[in-house]
Amino acid sequence: MAIIARRKSVVVNIGGVKVGGSNPVVVQSMTNTDTADVTGTVNQVMALANAGSELVRVTVNTEEAAKAVPRIVDTLNLFGMKVPIIGDFHYNGHILLKKYPECAKALSKYRINPGNVNIGRKTDDNYRTMIECAMEYGKPVRIGVNWGSLDGTLLTRMMDENAKSATPLNAADVTKRAIVVSAIESAAMAESYGLPHDKIILSAKVSAVQDLIDVYRMLAAECDLPLHLGLTEAGMGAKGIVATTAALSILLQEGIGDTIRASLTPLPNGDRTEEVLVSQQILQSLGIRSFTPQVTACPGCGRTTSTFFQELADQIQTYLREQMPLWKEKYTGVEEMKVAVMGCIVNGPGESKHANIGISLPGTAEDPKAPVYVDGKLVTTLKGDGIVDDFTGMVNQYVERTYGANQPAAVN
């Protein structure tokens, strides 16, 4: 794994998942079901958790949603799914948490947006109520600032102060500064009410890559609280994935970030677990954490007119991911394994030698045979129609032989 100097922060315990300090960067996701739909929400939470989400956030916006939360958590426990559930509150969280104490107890963390807790009020009573609920039930809080719902009073005040400055900043820089100030001041306010320092996580999300980097660099320099990273409203498809990866990778490389989420917009009826896989892949590509064996495959060219190597690469990557729930319980370190599926002789043998196990399939005009390399050495050459099954079998043998030996001996 890559050695990246992590920013020092306090450690926050979220339902048994430790965030901050030297603990691994945690992958988080959020459901998009109606939380009042217990069955639908449970199914999606389980799908996200099975995909590798270590924390799952749900919307708590109505009385029906608040009533459903304890049933959701109880049902997950019945299925043996212990993933911590986070409640996302906006506007009426102070009412719901007080009116439905079983909801407040069942959640592992509350997410509060300081920009929309006390709208239209001159006091901070609503915010204080939510913090007091967190204190009563021993729950941590993520204070999540978002530039789409930034505290208007704070922003106006800072804009006015900036206008009077001898060296005024531009409006964009003042806004970024206001996001950071909102997070820091909200955390200080929560502590003034009695919330322990090690019960607070901060986030400060924007939707532009360079702005996000600027905001988190400032935030990281001014506090020792764990930080949740995410490019808010990242978008759909390639745009959302690339923008999220660009922003989070720079910050993670600088040691900033303790939990992450890829806030992707799925296609209608699309797979919500994509955001989990993207977050995992960012961490794995940076060498920060490993989640599943990785497949190296060439992009294809005129030498690889057959789609066979592409199909094999996809089949192997899918197979590895499907096996991980079982493998991670049996084979220590298997998530670090590297597999190569190459399409011709140009780079095929070389890449295969660099992988733990690799196959170089025949390209155009090459002999119809596929050399297989294990730990850098040629061990066999596969031919015929059974290459897929034969190679998959060799992968299984390699896992058993290499990672099965890492298991501690049974104690009688």
TrEMBL record:
**EC number(s) for this protein?**
1.17.7.3
Keyword Hydrolase recorded = no
Which keywords, in A-to-Z order, does the entry hold? 4Fe-4S, Iron, Iron-sulfur, Isoprene biosynthesis, Metal-binding, Oxidoreductase
Return the cofactor note field: Binds 1 [4Fe-4S] cluster.
Q: Name one GO molecular function term.
A: 4-hydroxy-3-methylbut-2-en-1-yl diphosphate synthase activity (ferredoxin)
Cofactor section? [4Fe-4S] cluster
> Any idea what this protein is called?
4-hydroxy-3-methylbut-2-en-1-yl diphosphate synthase (flavodoxin)
Instruction: Please report the organism this UniProt entry assigns to the protein.
Output: Paludibaculum fermentans
